[in-house]
Write a structure and sequence with these properties.
It contains one helix and 23 strands. The protein is mainly beta. It has two domains: 3-127, Immunoglobulin-like, CATH 2.60.40; 141-294, Jelly Rolls (Sandwich), CATH 2.60.120. Strands 11, 12, 13, 15, 20 and 22 form a six-stranded antiparallel β-sheet that branches. A five-stranded mixed β-sheet has the order 2-9-8-5-6, with no helix packed on it. Strands 1, 3, 4 and 7 form a four-stranded antiparallel β-sheet that branches. The chain is elongated and about 65 Å long. The chain starts with a strand and ends with a strand. Mean pLDDT is 74; it is low at 6-37, 126-136 and 297-301.
Length: 301
């Protein structure tokens, strides 16, 4: 029986990760300082369909993405209710300055053996300063292009050496990711999505990425509510002969009210076209995506 896991997030004082969905690729996530009481939220498939029923989980922290040494003892979480693939489990992160890798093993409740789900998910500590409180700070979630949901059969979107997503010009293909609403987001400050990319060629022209923001309304039965496609905050224009190895970025500043009202966000990117003034005719290499938000005032241990 094939089982797959998507890591939706850490609830509490830790920043969420993204849904790796079809690809099951590693995701790098900057998280808050370790805290003894957080919740691991995930999505589980069993035999190709959303899991449903009672499952036992075994969660182990490691100091490496593969092999490595366990950090502390494995946490057994028996008899967890999984509904439409979604589940939560308690998790404690150690106080350390190095990344930890979360390995999850699962079995149907009462079965004799666990199935280890791969890959492990990385949680990287981010500095929060000293003192008893942290306020007016910015947190960032970093998403690798290898983790994006996309049409794997499309020749318009192709991973290049597992480092960049090569994106053809003048195509309607899109790729994106899911993000559980951060528990420490202050609920009012803008959310910024920042796209890092390189040019696939030396021709002149303008680049204008587009973004679809979708949200999930709990209990509505509707996963996606699409308020439309928006352009980047500013158009990037390149003269003839830009260096192909330079890295550029464009940002989307989001102030949509439905961000605060919905527990799950999704962000899908598209190349621009003549309609939104994109004129660069070469390929673009998507290198990384960051989601940045302002956190509320939190009491830290």
């Amino acid at each position: 029986m094939v089982r797959r896991l998507a890591f939706l997030g850490l609830i509490g004082l830790a920043i969420v990760a993204v849904w790796v969905g079809w690809l099951q690729r590693p995701v790098t996530v900057e998280s808050a300082t370790a805290h003894p009481s957080i919740i691991y939220e995930g999505y589980l498939e069993d035999g190709g369909s959303s899991a449903h029923g009672q499952y036992d989980f075994l969660i182990t922290l490691f100091d490496a993405a593969t092999d490595g040494q366990p950090i502390g003892e494995a946490l057994a979480v028996p008899d967890v209710t999984v509904v439409d693939g979604r589940f939560t489990a308690p998790l404690s992160l150690p106080a350390r300055d190095q990344p930890v890798y979360v390995e999850v093993a699962v079995r149907q409740h009462g079965s004799s053996s666990y199935t280890v789900l791969t890959p492990r998910q990385i949680v990287t500590p981010a500095a929060t300063g000293t003192g008893t409180t942290a306020s007016s700070q910015t947190r960032t979630v970093s998403i690798s292009p290898a983790a994006l949901i996309r049409d794997l059969d499309s020749t318009n979107l192709v991973m290049d050496n597992d480092l960049a997503l090569r994106w053809a010009a003048n195509v309607s293909d899109e790729a994106g990711f899911y993000l559980a609403r951060p528990a420490d987001w202050d609920g009012t400050s803008p959310v910024t999505v920042r796209v890092f990319f390189a040019l696939g060629g030396n021709g002149a022209g303008a680049v204008n990425w587009r973004l679809k923001l979708n949200t999930y309304t709990p209990g509505s039965g509707e996963w996606l509510t699409n308020p439309g496609t928006r352009d980047a905050d500013s158009l990037l224009t390149f003269p003839s002969g830009p260096s192909w190895y330079r890295i550029y970025s464009q940002s989307f500043t989001l102030t949509d009210s439905n961000l605060a009202n919905n527990s799950l966000w999704s962000f899908f990117l598209l190349r621009g076209n003549a309609a939104n003034s994109e004129t660069f005719a070469g390929q673009l290499y998507l290198l990384n995506i960051e989601v940045e938000y302002g956190e509320g005032e939190l009491a830290l241990p």
